[in-house]
Structures are given as C-alpha cells and as structure tokens.
Design a protein that fits this description.
Shape: globular
Order of helices and strands: HEEEHHEHE
Number of helices: 4
Distance between the termini: 38 Å
Number of strands: 5
Bound molecules: guanosine-5'-monophosphate, zinc ion
CATH superfamily: HIT-like
Radius of gyration: 14 Å
CATH class: Alpha Beta
Number of domains: 1
Length: about 120
C-alpha cells in the first residue's frame, strides 16, 4: 500500500466509497463525480501507477478486465454498450495515479474524443 495514494486508502477502508463489486484482487466503486448515469472505477487492490505498469503484471491485468466486465454486466450495460477507459499520463488526463478502469454508460456517449 502507498499511504499517499487515494485509491490505496479506499482499498484500506480509510476513505469511504460506494463499492459495487469486490474480488480478492480488485475493487469497484462509483466515481465521486459521475460523467454518465453509470460511472464506476475498477481498480486492482495492489498499487500500480498506470496501465503501463499494470501490463507488467498480467494476472492483475486479467483480473481487472474480468472485474470490469462483471461490473458492466451487473450495471445492465452489456445490451446497449458502454465505454471502458484508462486515462494515462498527462495527455491522457490521468488525475489519480493508481490505475483504474472507468466503466461508463447508461446513455449514448458520443464521439470517443473531441478534436
Ligand atoms: P482519472 O482522471 O485519473 O482517469 O480519473 C480519476 C477519477 O477519480 C475521476 O473521475 C474523479 O471523479 C474520481 N475521484 C477522485 N477522487 C475520488 C474519490 O475520493 N472517490 C471516488 N469515488 N472517486 C474519486
Ligand atoms: Zn495506490
């Protein structure tokens, strides 16, 4: 655990979150500032700063993907579709440096990025 990391502190139970799914290696909770009717963050419990670091731990990456799919299913998003987003680094707009997948859906989301 990284004591300076917001999401590690959520995993540790030090900061409250609305948890919607949990496995031995992953935690999923609602984004505090949702951008769509469904906006859930899915994280590995182990600290990896971004998706590049996570790629070095294939088992954790697979667990995160499976948990993201389970969340999409549980939130009723698999029929109409949804978006799975890993913001990475400066140009990617990453704000929290504990890797997280955004599961976003519940409405048509428009173009993938603006020009
Ligand atoms: P990023 O920009 O790093 O991809 O996304 C970080 C996300 O974390 C943002 O969507 C932001 O709303 C969310 N967030 C920031 N602080 C908290 C928090 O304390 N609790 C929850 N549940 N979400 C947070
Ligand atoms: Zn962390």
């Amino acid at each position: 655990m990284d004591n300076d990391c917001l999401f590690c502190r959520i995993v540790a139970g030090e900061i409250p979150a609305t948890v919607v799914h949990e496995t031995a290696t992953t935690l999923a909770f609602r984004d505090i500032d949702p951008k769509a009717p469904v906006h859930v963050l899915v994280i590995p419990k182990a600290h990896h700063r971004d998706v590049l670091a996570l790629a070095g731990d294939p088992a954790a990456a697979a667990d995160l993907l499976a948990a993201s799919a389970a969340v999409a299913q549980a939130e009723g998003l698999t029929g109409d579709g949804f978006r799975l987003i890993f913001n990475t680094g400066g140009h990617g707009g990453q704000e929290v440096f504990h890797v997280h997948a955004h599961v976003v859906g519940g409405r048509a989301l428009g173009p993938m990025v603006s020009r």
